[in-house]
């Protein structure tokens, strides 16, 4: 089970990697729009964290010299991961913000909210449930690993959910009806051309 928690702890690398590979492979304006929304939502959460300034949760950690348990914030070292040091505040959880944004945007891009790409209701439902389960598991791991309280995860998740829903709404209600996808795609294509890709 520790390997599962280790994997969930590394999700920032996994999610960023999958997103980057998807963008490089598709060179899609829609994926670029999605990335910009995710960065904007996460930036909002990081700025909120600096304003709110709420510490991370306290955990019992054995003192290195005396062996006596002492309470420390997870910024000082977690009992489950003593080498992991978190130097930022805890409210809201930016991991939860990011994954809730991704989970919400992707879920709203799948049936029943959008047209099916697979023509299989079972595959569509499995993709939706898999997206939701992965997102919830990642957010729950932030509490289990001692990095955040449930309140910090809930607020981060709420920010990400609202951001993902708003960003998907903007794509459907502004970008597509105003035929802005082609100009956005030209910008993406020009960016890749400048890079020589």
TrEMBL record:
InterPro entries: PAP2/HPO, PAP2/HPO_sf. The keyword Hydrolase does not apply. Keywords: Membrane, Transmembrane, Transmembrane helix. It comes from Naganishia liquefaciens. GO terms for molecular function: sphingosine-1-phosphate phosphatase activity. SUPFAM superfamilies: Acid phosphatase/Vanadium-dependent haloperoxidase. The keyword Nuclease does not apply. SMART domains: acidPPc. The chain crosses the membrane at residues 89-108, 120-141, 153-171. It comes from the Eukaryota. Pfam families: PAP2. Residues 31-168 form the Phosphatidic acid phosphatase type 2/haloperoxidase domain. This is Phosphatidic acid phosphatase type 2/haloperoxidase domain-containing protein.
């Amino acid at each position: 089970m520790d390997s599962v928690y280790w994997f969930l702890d590394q999700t920032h690398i996994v999610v960023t990697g999958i997103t980057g590979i998807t963008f490089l492979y598709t060179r899609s304006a829609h994926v670029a729009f999605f990335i910009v929304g995710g960065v904007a939502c996460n930036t909002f959460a990081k700025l909120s964290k600096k304003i709110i300034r709420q510490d991370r949760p306290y955990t019992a950690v054995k003192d290195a010299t005396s062996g006596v348990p002492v309470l420390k914030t997870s910024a000082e070292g977690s009992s489950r991961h003593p080498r992991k040091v978190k130097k930022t505040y805890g409210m809201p959880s930016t991991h939860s913000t990011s994954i809730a944004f991704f989970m919400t945007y992707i879920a709203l891009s799948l049936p029943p909210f959008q047209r099916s790409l697979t023509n299989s209701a079972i595959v569509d439902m499995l993709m939706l449930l898999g997206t939701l389960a992965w997102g919830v598991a990642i957010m729950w791991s932030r509490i289990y690993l001692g990095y955040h309280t449930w309140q910090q995860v809930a607020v981060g998740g709420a920010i990400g959910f609202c951001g993902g829903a708003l960003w998907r709404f903007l794509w459907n209600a502004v970008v597509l009806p105003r035929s802005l996808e082609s100009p956005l795609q030209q910008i993406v294509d020009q960016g890749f051309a400048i890079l020589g890709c």
